[in-house]
Amino acid sequence: MIRLESINKSFGAHHVLKDVSLTVDKAEVVCVIGPSGSGKSTMLRCINNMEDIGSGTISIDGQPVYRYERDGKLIVDSEKQIEAIRAKVGMVFQSFNLFPHLTVTENITVAPIHVLGRSRGEATDIALGLLEKVGLAMKAQAYPHELSGGQQQRVAIARALAMRPKAILFDEVTSALDPELVGEVLRVMRALADEGMTMVVVTHEMGFARDVSDRVVFMADGKIVESGKPHELFSAPQQERTRDFLRSVL
Ligand code: ADP
Ligand code: MG
Question: CA 200 → CA 95, 113, 114, 133, 214, distances in Å?
Answer without folding.
Answer: 17, 26, 26, 20, 10
